[in-house]
Write a structure and sequence with these properties.
The complex is a heterotrimer of chains A (219), B (173) and C (544). By secondary structure, chain A is mainly α. In chain A, 76% of the residues lie in helices and 0% in strands. Helices cover 76% and strands 6% of the residues of chain B. Chain B has a two-stranded antiparallel sheet. The two termini of chain B are 32 Å apart. Chain C has 544 residues and is of the alpha/beta class. Chain C has a six-stranded mixed beta sheet with strand order 6-7-8-3-9-10, with helices on both faces. In chain C, strands 16-17-18-13-19-20 form a six-stranded mixed beta sheet, sandwiched between helices. A four-stranded antiparallel beta sheet of chain C has the order 2-1-4-5, covered by helices on one side. In chain C, α5 packs across α6, α5 packs parallel to α7 and α16 runs parallel beside α18. Classes of the chains: A mainly alpha (219), B mainly alpha (173), C alpha/beta (544). Chains A and B meet through α3, α4, α6 and α7 of A and α1, α3, α6 and α7 of B. The structure holds adenosine-5'-triphosphate (2 copies) and magnesium ion (2 copies).
Chain lengths: 219, 173, 544
């Protein structure tokens, strides 16, 4: 649909809107809109899990604000924190990091930055698998590596092999990257990211609406 | 016929740094679910600080900041992180990298990381975020002790890991 | 001739930065675009190091000390960057996992083309051609890390093909592949060679690489020990450099055949000489007769499901003390999963497993670890102590069963005395494996289980391992090995479990399994050279 850069700018606009909104009912409305978007994108299961992580944080934050000022401010602070972070949840749920990185490269970001983003996504599961294989190999020798404080003294048995293999993996990866011309200048891209008219309209429109809402309604 | 002693070319060194950054990010993302635990109300994650120290020493300040940023982005994209992870990780990585660059000692990187993430980051984010969220600086400052604990644990592990890697002749720095 | 020479190496001596001695010494080599060159040599002889000089990774990426010259297409490598050479000399390295860094197969193939800065239309065209040539068009959108081992190698080769290199270099591509996948990769390489692309291949198991090669180079202790027609060199490879001479070559040499045959199919019709096989090959292990002892392992109608996927279906067998059993089958047949059940890393969905007569259900892994010593394929997964000696002791120390005299004996059996004080991380692949085996045996388990013990190992290692296992067996150790190296399995185990798609197809002597072509085809395996030759000569005898 939109270019990833457009989505980023729109997310920033929405975040600004929430951050500067002062009326509690507007805040709630802005957040509900996001939740509606999440339901439409069929991401609500992930969102619920993510909420479980964030809600205690927001409650704590709101609680302390309430304690140091007043109840209304506390509530608003908690809601606002939830809504802003949700904005970026929606952004990341609708944008592949690969697309984000590559489109930013078109806008002048150095290529290695985008590369780190996409390649790390590929290697995170590889490292995860390695960690599991190490845990199993150690268990097979009787070294327990279950999570928990009691097994903590055995953690070197996981961390050391993992680190050593990770750096060996990194060396092999670097070699493979060289062999496919990573360091060469003048790279082209098969997939092009173009900002079309629609993108520009969306950006201008989005920021315009935010400005209007802030100026006349939400504060 | 000539004998030449060669050190790796600059472009190759950059490739290697990129590859190290990739793997450090992957470690940060892959291990986070196993190592993050709640202290009080905040969740702390020593892996982030561990990775920051490694990146600061092996790659330098700018790559370390980049590594912390990408870990943040990926954890957000996977729905397991929040926006709040960004400032902490990145400030710590920057200070750790600068401290190491000045003193060339891995403990300096650890100290930089502890000051950055444990001390400065909450204050900075408090002052940035506080006016926006209408509260004042106090709420986030209440998080400082738990941040300090987790960053100290992670940074210490980072120093130990660096020594081991050096002794095992896996990396040189 | 001179024009078609692509890589020229003159008096090359090279030392890695961290090392005190040179790895390569006085190498002199010309590689042309018409070669299908096989490079072999013992583990650590410098094969991978030599390959790294062909595209400038040495010296540009590794640094170090270099004497002599390497030219690629006329350009001196030490003055030409890797970025300028990578599209002339395509490289596929040893570990496929580390080389796949893109989100999709298509992106993987395109990466090098983007580096070259080609226009978009050209990129699309070359992508299509490369996918087509490698026969992996159907995998186009897949995540490369989720592919099978054979497919990963095909993707890597396709990524090189797209660059239209003049020569492709592959470092041990077959190490973890089953016979069907090896054939697939070999066919592709032959096609490429026929189209005029040079091929350079490093490999230990010569019987599956030598038939296709037009030229063989043996590296021995950093020097080129031989260079020429494969069959001629192979005839005395074993005595001279400790390499494995394929059986067909040995037969041919002892009969004075010219030219020496490349494979069983290539053997001329000659009067059968079954006695010759017995004279040239090590004796097969004797059939096991158990002396009324109770079995060490009993697996009883074992089933395993992961998610809704059946991984193992109705497996039953027993293993007695002093017996050596080989589990053979194609990639993904469920061999590793079976081993994991013995030690409780995986629990049966149905059925039961008894170790030394006791049901393992509910027994924690740490208890099972006393009775089953399991060495996984990758020894790096377990090393975390500073010396080999500590590393071997850590298991029994944790279990509280340390026995110093046994540890010393183990160090002797596996020839590890000299390494006791070394750090395990920087040992060679074969040495690491030996440490892992010793460590699996350190707490005197009743059962020793080895997963792919020979993958990527040289001939000497395989021969020694056979002796180690023989010694242990004679002491009453029950051994179970999982492998797709049938030659090794035939020489080591008198009994095979043949697996395919999670089922046990047969449990009997190797000779009876290989005699059934339908069974072998179903399991996706290929009979050993020894067996095929014996069979061919037998059938001729009966016909005469
Ligand atoms: N990156 C490196 N740094 C330092 N030494 C190395 C490096 N790579 C290899 N070596 C050393 O160089 C020697 C030759 O290694 P190389 O990998 O070339 O052998 P190989 O013939 O490919 O062996 P294998 O059959 O086991 O793959 C070995 O002693 C090894 O320890
Ligand atoms: N944790 C798991 N979850 C789901 N499927 C799995 C899991 N582990 C293994 N499998 C599947 O089980 C099957 C058997 O795997 P296994 O590793 O036992 O095969 P193998 O015979 O050892 O193969 P190889 O020769 O390649 O090592 C494969 O199809 C694999 O994809
Ligand atoms: Mg090698
Ligand atoms: Mg397996």
């Amino acid at each position: 649909m939109f270019d990833p850069r457009t989505k980023l700018l729109l997310a920033l606009a929405y975040g600004t809107l929430i951050a500067l909104t002062r009326k509690p009912e507007w805040l709630l409305g802005e957040w509900s809109l996001l939740v509606a978007a999440i339901v439409v994108m069929n991401q609500w299961k992930v969102y619920l899990r993510w909420l479980a992580m964030l809600v205690p944080m927001a409650l704590f934050f709101g609680g302390v604000t309430w304690w140091s000022t007043d109840r209304a401010t506390g509530q608003a602070a908690a809601t606002s924190l939830m809504a802003i972070t949700t904005t970026f949840f929606v952004f990341f749920a609708s944008t592949e990091p690969e697309d984000l990185g590559n489109s930013l490269v078109h806008a002048g970001l150095p290529f290695p930055v985008a590369f780190v983003m996409t390649a790390a996504m590929q290697f995170a599961p590889v490292i995860g698998r390695k960690a599991r294989a190490i845990v199993e190999a150690q268990q097979a020798r009787g070294i327990a590596l279950k999570p928990g404080w009691r097994a903590l003294r055995n953690y070197p048995a996981l961390l050391i092999p993992l680190l050593i293999q990770s750096f060996q993996l990194a060396d092999a990866l670097a070699e493979a990257m060289e062999a496919r011309g990573f360091g060469r200048s003048g790279r082209t891209f098969r997939k092009v990211y173009r900002m079309r008219m629609l993108d520009w309209l969306a950006i201008i429109g989005g920021w315009g609406v935010v400005a209007v809402v802030l100026r006349y309604f939400a504060r | 016929m000539s004998t030449k002693s060669v050190s790796p070319a600059t472009s190759s060194r950059n490739t290697r740094k990129t590859a190290y950054a990739v793997v450090l990010v992957a470690i940060g993302v892959a291990l986070a679910p196993y190592t993050s635990f709640p202290i009080g109300i905040a969740k702390v994650n020593p892996t982030q600080h561990f990775v920051n120290v490694l990146a600061a020493v092996l790659l330098g300040p700018w790559w370390a900041v980049l590594t912390a940023m990408v870990i943040g982005i990926l954890r957000n994209a996977m729905g397991v992180g929040t926006l709040l992870a960004f400032p902490g990780g990145m400030i710590g990585a920057l200070l750790a990298g600068l401290a190491y660059r000045m003193l060339r000692k891995s403990w300096a990187a650890a100290v930089g990381e502890i000051i950055g993430t444990g001390g400065i980051a909450p204050v900075v984010s408090a002052f940035f975020v506080a006016p926006v969220l209408m509260g004042n600086a106090i709420p986030l400052l209440a998080l400082v002790p738990s941040f300090l604990f987790s960053t100290a644990a992670g940074a210490l592990l980072g120093i130990l890991a660096l020594r081991l890697l050096k002794r095992a002749n896996i990396v040189d720095f | 001739m001179a024009e078609s020479t692509l890589i020229t190496v003159r008096e090359l001596t090279y030392r890695y930065r961290q090392k005190s001695r040179p790895v390569l010494q006085g190498i002199h080599l010309d590689i042309s675009g018409n070669d299908y060159l096989l490079i072999t040599g013992r583990s650590g002889s410098g094969k991978s190091t030599l390959c790294r000089t062909f595209n400038g990774l040495i010296p540009h990426f590794y640094g170090g000390v270099l004497t002599g010259e390497v030219f690629v297409a006329g350009a001196p490598v030490d003055q030409t960057s890797v970025a300028a050479l990578f599209n002339q000399v395509g490289m596929v390295f040893q570990n496929p996992e580390a080389q796949l860094f893109c989100r999709s197969v298509a992106q993987e193939i395109v990466f090098g083309l983007e580096s070259l800065g080609l226009p978009r239309q050209t990129i699309e065209d070359r992508l299509r051609d490369a996918l087509d040539q490698a026969g992996i068009t159907a995998l186009r959108q897949r995540d490369p890390q989720t592919l099978s081992g054979g497919e990963k190698h095909l993707v890597l080769i396709a990524a090189m093909l797209a660059l239209r290199p003049r020569v492709i270099i592959l470092d041990e591509p077959f190490a973890n592949l089953d016979p069907a996948n090896v054939l697939r990769v070999r066919r592709l390489l032959r096609e490429l060679h026929a189209k005029g692309c040079g091929i350079v291949l490093c490999e230990h198991r010569l019987s599956r690489a030598a038939p296709d090669a037009t030229r063989l180079v043996v590296i021995h202790e950093g020097k080129i020990a031989a260079d020429g027609i494969p069959q001629g060199i192979l005839a005395n490879a074993e005595t001279a450099w400790g390499l494995e001479t394929p059986l067909t070559t040995r037969i041919g040499a002892s009969l004075g055949l010219t030219p020496l045959p490349r494979s069983i199919e290539d053997m001329p019709s000659i009067p059968p000489q079954p006695a010759l096989i017995a004279a040239l090959e090590p004796p097969l292990p004797e059939a096991f007769t158990h002396q009324g002892q109770p079995p060490a392992v009993e697996v009883d109608h074992l089933c395993c499901q992961l998610g809704n996927q059946p991984i193992l279906t109705d497996i039953s067998f027993a293993l007695h003390p002093g017996e050596c059993l080989a589990v053979v089958g194609a990639n993904g047949a469920g061999k590793t999963t079976l081993l994991r059940h013995l030690i409780g890393l995986q629990r049966p969905t149905k059925g039961r497993i008894r170790i030394k007569g006791r049901d393992t259900a509910g027994t924690p892994i740490s208890n099972l670890a006393r009775d089953v010593g399991l060495a996984f394929q990758n020894p790096d997964n377990q090393f975390f102590r500073l010396t080999v000696d500590q590393e071997i002791r850590v298991g029994p120390e944790t279990l509280g069963t340390i026995d110093n005299s046994w540890i010393e004996e183990l160090m002797a059996i596996f020839h590890l005395e000299a390494f006791g004080g070394h750090a395990p991380y920087r040992l060679s692949g074969g040495e690491k494996k030996r440490v892992a085996f010793a460590s699996a045996l350190a707490s005197r388990p009743a059962v020793l289980a080895l997963d792919e013990p020979t993958a990527g190992q040289d001939f000497e290692f395989r021969r020694n391992l056979r002796n180690f296992l023989g010694q242990l067996q004679a002491r009453g150790q029950a051994i179970i090995i999982v492998t797709h190296d049938l030659t090794f399995a035939e020489r080591t185990a008198s009994r095979w479990l043949l697996m395919a798609e999670g089922r046990l197809l047969a449990d009997t002597a190797p000779g009876r399994i290989m005699a059934d072509p339908a069974l072998m085809a179903r399991a996706g395996l290929e009979a050993t050279d020894r067996f095929r030759l014996a069979q061919r000569w037998q059938s001729k005898e009966t016909r005469v």
